[in-house]
Amino acid sequence: METKQENWPLLSFKEYEKDINPTPTYQRSSVWKPEQKQMLIDSILRKIDIPKIYLRETKKKDYQYEIIDGQQRMRAIWGFLKNDLSLSEEAEQILVKDKLFEVSEKLYKELDSSVVVERIHKYSLNIVIIYDATEDEIADLFYRLNNGTPLTPAEVRNAMPGEMKETIKTVAKHIFFEKVSFANRRFIYDQICAQMMMLELNNGLADTRDRTLSKMYSDYSKSVPTTAIKNIQNALDVLEKIFPEHSRLLNRAATINVYLLISYLLKNTKLTKDFYALFFDWYSQTEPERRKDNEYRLYMSSSSNSRSAIEGRFRILISALYQQFPKLGIIQLDQKRLFDEEQKMDIFARDKGVCQKCSKKVGERSWHADHKKPWIKGGKTILDNGELLCVKCNLQKKDKLW
To answer: Are 11 and 121 in contact (CB under 8 A)?
Structure first.
């Protein structure tokens, strides 16, 4: 990868609009608010330096360059010079050659000629041009330039080079996402698909918060297990058939809920086409009532991407599903999911306050009562199937769905 720096007059930069690709694959869409754009133009008019703009020299037919860093600045400048953006109503007067000029709420074409000549025509942009660079080098440069800036985690991951990024982008194009209630702003479909991938790689239950997703992108930069990709595609194919049209019930957390349900069922039983319509009717009729339940609402809203929240929602949904369709259940789930306080005290006394995994003594409040045989595997919520675990050991314990 080679670089060269050039100073481009602001007006000549406008002439390059048709030659610069503003949205290569690693870029986010336009996200600046009007006041952010106005602040940039105000800075230019007051001769304040703005950060460098990075362009990649390409050999593609449509464009001579593509933007690497500075897209929001570039769009703001183009918008102002095309009279699509006016200055802020709070913009103060500008002093040019001992004379004050009003600029508040003015378009480019409305500025006094002295301001235009002295503050626009004479302003230069610092441009860094990258050439002879690979796709991975460009994605890595974008990631480094934007690390620590107000990009969303999904946008940062979209800039990370590697196979996981490319796999997620492909999966996110699945037609099922036409049915969800949220728009694909700032790579949110990629975010959801990354969470699905994390669940598959961890056999059903996992922490899907941003930190763990970014680590997954890094860990699987060279290759992605084909089984996980196939599992996601199969589940999305089924979901696309289940939901006949756009559904307001499919917010982000709910999409993960139904994905996990269908993925689990595909691995544990045979689904027929008749089931698709039955599942849709059951889900659409019961989900609004579930969302009124305090426990379910808590799992949907509080740290909804954490492992515990995903597991809590799944337990509620799979139990309700098996009640509605008992023939689907290979196992019989205990209707009581959690140990009550009396059972917890009995378990604490029986296990003498000692963690059954690491054998350490625990304090009265620093322990959990958990199932020996996981509830999701048919384990009963009874004393004989309960054990005392310290918090650390219980959090490290991972019950697998498949």
So the answer is: yes
**What digits encode the pLDDT tens for the residues 126-159?**
999 998 877 777 777 777 776 655 567 887 788 7
Q: Which residues of 64-93 are buried (b: 16+ CB within 10 A; e: fewer)?
A: bbbbbbbbbbbbbbbbbbeeebbbbeebee
Q: Are strands 124-131 and 53-57 parallel, antiparallel or unpaired?
A: parallel
| pLDDT at residue number 195 | 97
Helix (H) or strand (E) holding 309: helix 307-324
Beta partners for residue 21, in sequence order: 66
Please tell me the pTM assigned to this model: 0.61
CA–CA separation, 274 vs 370, rounded Å?
37
Q: How many whole angstroms from its chain centre is CA 61?
A: 33
Question: At residue 331, does pLDDT exceed 60?
Answer: no
Task: List Cβ neighbours of 106 (8 Å cut-off, separation of 6 or more).
Answer: 86, 87
Which run of H or E residues covers position 65? strand 65-69
Ramachandran region of residue 187, left (φ > 0), alpha (ψ -120 to 50) or beta? left
Query: Element (H or E) spanning 273, and its range?
Result: helix 273-290
User: pLDDT band at residue 390, thresholds of 50, 70 and 90?
Assistant: very high
User: Is residue 58 a contact partner of residue 21, using CB atoms and an 8 Å limit?
Assistant: yes
Q: What are the start-end ranges of the E strands in 273-339?
A: none
Last residue of a domain, one of 91, 117, 146: 146
59 and 91 within one domain: yes
**Six token digits for residue 249:** 């019930």
From CA 106, how far away is CA 89, in angstroms rounded? 8
CB 8 within 8 A of CB 121: no
Asked if residue 234 and residue 359 are part of one domain, the reply reads no
Q: How many helices (H) and strands (E) does the chain have?
A: 16, 9
Q: Residue 262 domain-assigned?
A: yes
For residue 389, which phi and psi values (nearest 5 degrees)? -130, 145
Close Cβ partners of 134 (under 8 Å, ≥ 6 residues apart):
1
Same domain? 21 vs 161: no
The length of the chain is: 402
- Please indicate, yes or no, if residue 139 is contained in any of the structural domains: yes
What 3-state DSSP class applies to 57?
strand
